[in-house]
Amino acid sequence: NSGRTPLMAGNWKMNLNHHEAVHLVQKLALGLADKKHDFSAVEVVVVPPFTDIRSVQTTVDGGQLQIKYGAQDISVHDDGAYTGEISAAMLAKLGCSYVVVGHSERREYHGETDALVNAKAHKALAGGMTPIVCVGEGLDVRQSGEHVAHCVAQIDGSLAGFSSAQLASLVVAYEPVWAIGTGEVATPEDAQEVCAALRARIAETAGDEAAAGIRILYGGSVKAANIAGIMQKPDVDGALVGGASLQADEFGGICRFY
Ligand code: PEP
């Protein structure tokens, strides 16, 4: 037993308006309540689009649900003339616990570099939220056999400048790009290989306390039917779930993998 609380985070991406968001959160909560989900054993987090966060907040507060929520991105700026951006203070004010940074879709479609991802992770933590820092290799890198080195380099850049104690509180998500939204899930062994290498790298650069505390998630075509095998691996502490998090029953099943 690692002592790390498993974390299941549902990244809704650009799906669901605020009415649909309320419906999904209520349905998820009802399902988990029915099945007596132990929130101390598995933390449940939803990550809706910005426009849904206020509604999710109201739903979660009103029902006194133990479901937490976060944002899919954050600005590196505090305030000012940055049209379209959302600051850490705005997200914290809405009760966000987590912020996903450096998702592969942001890296690919918005040119986000490790340096930018690192700056966003620092903003999230300084704002009182936990960054979920995403890394992962594309198919070409996987086929070349360089996937571990690629992800370790991304971790080095994306987690720069945090103290050991800070690192111990962060979350990393290993998401091989070839497994995202493709239905092609990595094997539990594939997930373990990279998650273990990332933890070893953190031990090497920041010490054992950081490596023992930091939670490392796997992401890529996770479903209720494949989560159990993935969670059996010692260095996998949870999952970042895309498509399957849009269905309450499916995501509920993932949260109750144990
Ligand atoms: C994701 O984008 O974070 C993800 C893991 O997506 P999916 O579960 O749909 O593969």
TrEMBL record:
<dbReference type="GO" id="GO:0006094">
    <property type="term" value="P:gluconeogenesis"/>
</dbReference>
<keyword id="KW-0963">Cytoplasm</keyword>
<dbReference type="InterPro" id="IPR013785">
    <property type="entry name" value="Aldolase_TIM"/>
</dbReference>
<dbReference type="InterPro" id="IPR020861">
    <property type="entry name" value="Triosephosphate_isomerase_AS"/>
</dbReference>
<protein>
    <recommendedName>
        <fullName>Triosephosphate isomerase</fullName>
        <ecNumber>5.3.1.1</ecNumber>
    </recommendedName>
</protein>
<keyword id="KW-0312">Gluconeogenesis</keyword>
<feature type="binding site">
    <location>
        <position position="221"/>
    </location>
    <ligand>
        <name>substrate</name>
    </ligand>
</feature>
<keyword id="KW-0324">Glycolysis</keyword>
<dbReference type="GO" id="GO:0004807">
    <property type="term" value="F:triose-phosphate isomerase activity"/>
</dbReference>
<comment type="function">
    <text>Involved in the gluconeogenesis. Catalyzes stereospecifically the conversion of dihydroxyacetone phosphate (DHAP) to D-glyceraldehyde-3-phosphate (G3P).</text>
</comment>
<dbReference type="InterPro" id="IPR022896">
    <property type="entry name" value="TrioseP_Isoase_bac/euk"/>
</dbReference>
<comment type="similarity">
    <text>Belongs to the triosephosphate isomerase family.</text>
</comment>
<dbReference type="GO" id="GO:0006096">
    <property type="term" value="P:glycolytic process"/>
</dbReference>
<dbReference type="Pfam" id="PF00121">
    <property type="entry name" value="TIM"/>
</dbReference>
<feature type="binding site">
    <location>
        <begin position="242"/>
        <end position="243"/>
    </location>
    <ligand>
        <name>substrate</name>
    </ligand>
</feature>
<feature type="active site" description="Electrophile">
    <location>
        <position position="103"/>
    </location>
</feature>
<keyword id="KW-0413">Isomerase</keyword>
<dbReference type="GO" id="GO:0005829">
    <property type="term" value="C:cytosol"/>
</dbReference>
<feature type="active site" description="Proton acceptor">
    <location>
        <position position="175"/>
    </location>
</feature>
<comment type="pathway">
    <text>Carbohydrate biosynthesis; gluconeogenesis.</text>
</comment>
<comment type="subunit">
    <text>Homodimer.</text>
</comment>
<feature type="binding site">
    <location>
        <begin position="11"/>
        <end position="13"/>
    </location>
    <ligand>
        <name>substrate</name>
    </ligand>
</feature>
<dbReference type="GO" id="GO:0046166">
    <property type="term" value="P:glyceraldehyde-3-phosphate biosynthetic process"/>
</dbReference>
<comment type="pathway">
    <text>Carbohydrate degradation; glycolysis; D-glyceraldehyde 3-phosphate from glycerone phosphate: step 1/1.</text>
</comment>
<dbReference type="InterPro" id="IPR035990">
    <property type="entry name" value="TIM_sf"/>
</dbReference>
<feature type="binding site">
    <location>
        <position position="181"/>
    </location>
    <ligand>
        <name>substrate</name>
    </ligand>
</feature>
<dbReference type="GO" id="GO:0019563">
    <property type="term" value="P:glycerol catabolic process"/>
</dbReference>
<dbReference type="InterPro" id="IPR000652">
    <property type="entry name" value="Triosephosphate_isomerase"/>
</dbReference>
